[in-house]
Amino acid sequence: MSPSPAVRTPQLPEDDPQPTPPVEPALEDCCGSGCVPCIFDIYEQARERYQRELEAWNARQAQRAGGKVRKVRTKPAPPGAA
After folding, report:
1. Would you say 51 and 59 are in contact if contact means Cβ atoms under 8 Å apart?
2. Measured in whole angstroms, how far is the alpha carbon of residue 24 from the centre of its chain?
3. What is the distance between the alpha carbons of residues 82 and 79, in angstroms, rounded to a whole number?
4. pLDDT: which is higher, 74 or 38
5. What is the pTM of this model?
6. 3-state DSSP call for residue 50?
7. How far are the Cα atoms of 28, 41, 55, 66 from residue 59, in angstroms, in the given order?
8. Burial class (CB in 10 A: 0-12, 13-18, 19+), 38
9. CA–CA separation, 50 and 25 (whole Å)
10. 19-23 — which CB contacts under 8 Å span 24+ positions?
11. Could you tell me the CA-to-CA distances from 12 to 17, 50, 63, 80 in Å, in that order?
C-alpha cells in the first residue's frame, strides 16, 4: 500500500478583522420616489451579506481557537440576558 496523502488544513488569514455591519439609512435618506432599488433595499442586501460574512468569520475564529470561541452577537442581548 502507498502512504495516504497528507490532509491539508485550510490556511487561516493572519489579519482577519471582524466584519463591520452596514449603517442603516435614516428615514430622511429615502427620497420617496419609488426608486428601484430603494436605499432600504440596498441596506437590506448589505445586512444579509454582513450576516453571512459574520457567520463565516465566527467559524474561522472557532477553527483558529480549536472550537472554543463564543459567537459574536449581531444584535444586542435583550435586557436581563446573560
Report:
1. no
2. 16
3. 9
4. 38
5. 0.65
6. helix
7. 37, 27, 6, 10
8. middle
9. 15
10. 19/50, 19/53, 19/54, 19/57, 20/50, 21/47, 21/50, 21/74, 22/46, 22/47, 22/50
11. 12, 19, 9, 36
The tens digit of pLDDT for each residue in 11-61 reads 666 788 999 999 999 999 999 999 999 999 999 999 999 999 999 999 988
Nearest 10 degrees: Cα torsion 58, 60, 66, 77:
-10
Q: Give the pLDDT mean for 62-68.
A: 78
Residue with cell 428615514: 27
Helix ranges (DSSP H) in 19-80: 39-64
Cell triple for 80 = 436581563
